[in-house]
Amino acid sequence: MKKKQQRFQKILKIISISIKSVILLVIGIAFFYYPGQNVYTWEMPVDLLKETQSSIALPKPAPYPKNVRQVYPGSDISAEGVAVYDVASGVFLYKKNENEKLAPASTTKILTALVAIDSFDPDAVLTVNTVVNNGQAMGLVKGERMTLENLLYGTLVYSGNDAAYTLAENYPGGVDAFVVAMNAKAQVLHLVDSHFTNPVGFDDPEHKMTAIDLARLASSAISNKLIAKIVAVPQITVSDVTFTYFHSLKNVNQLLGKIPGVSGIKTGWTEEAGENLVTLVERDGHKEIIVILRSKDRFEDTKNLINWIYSSYQWETIQ
To answer: What mean pLDDT do residues 95-111 have?
Structure first.
């Protein structure tokens, strides 16, 4: 009997110790997680606060173009398709038959250049296999080896059909695969009403663009530093990699170097297309893209539109 009492007392003692241990453990945990005063009284340093605020600040909207004269182009613009696009804001200042599908002629080469840059390193050496002499040509020779960059000068400055075709022919899979890549790139750029059958701009019933799509294409092209540099060059001489063949190239765009602010980007002409011109002009920090399709005088149309833009518009900052 005495042994049972001792055993019972021993069990009670163990239980008591266990209960105390549990209570102490709970108190310890509660104390550990209990928020101290510093959590509530600590303030973020001013410099850190400013840095945090600036890192999450939303970008300011681009200045918005406003036609303060309320005057718009009229019969002085002969082009059938027109789009005037403010690059920073994404606003079209003027449109005329902007969704009509027209022959783009050599303005096609803007897309040709973009696809080539996507496909080759600027220092890549390409070989002239098929010499295309139809229309404008820079005078490439079969077997000539030239860097991608020099071929781009031939394509964009002089509008050489032979240069554009060489870019496409060196593409993996050849010209047909290159044209597929052109149409795929067009989809990426949301050129929804355009379709291409060749890299040069030869007339074809299925080879069409709209003025709006050309403006979008040009906007993408000028964001590429290499293209922006090339299209702004009035003239240049390029050679093959062995310095055997030299080609003097003069920019076909007659406004370049004559009209303040004009820095490219591409001309185009065929019998079906008429006179085409895509122009980038910048004044007072405002970049505008002007697309002219099927014009009777592309340079005069563009000059009139440039004068209209900068005499009619002011750019307002939206708060």
So the answer is: 97
CA distances to 110, 161, 164, 249, 304 from 144, in Å: 23, 15, 14, 17, 42
pLDDT in tens, 206-251: 999 999 999 999 999 999 999 999 999 999 999 999 999 999 999 9
Phi, psi of 208 (to 5 degrees): -140, 155
Long-range contacts of 129-132 (CB under 8 A, 24+ apart): 129/166, 129/169, 129/170, 130/165, 130/166, 130/169, 131/162, 132/161, 132/162, 132/165, 132/200
Residue 159 appears among annotated catalytic residues: yes
Look up 16 and say whether it is catalytic: no
Cα separation, 122 vs 133, whole angstroms: 24
Q: Model's pTM, two decimal places?
A: 0.80
- CA distance linking residue 304 with residue 119, whole number of Å: 38
pLDDT at 33: 45
78 CB-contact burial (10 Å; exposed 0-12 / middle 13-18 / buried 19+): middle
Catalytic option among 109, 185, 208, 266: 109
Q: How far is CA 1 from the centre of its chain?
A: 97
74-98 pLDDT, tens digit per residue, is 888 999 999 999 999 999 999 999 9
Distances 252 to 21, 91, 265, 276, 281 between C-alpha atoms, Å: 92, 28, 10, 12, 16
How much of the chain exceeds pLDDT 70, in percent?
A: 81
- Selecting among 101, 106, 185, 220, the annotated active-site residue is 106
Q: Is 312 a catalytic residue?
A: no
Of 161, 130, 129, 151, nearest to 238 (Cα)? 151
List the catalytic residue out of 96, 159, 185, 263.
159
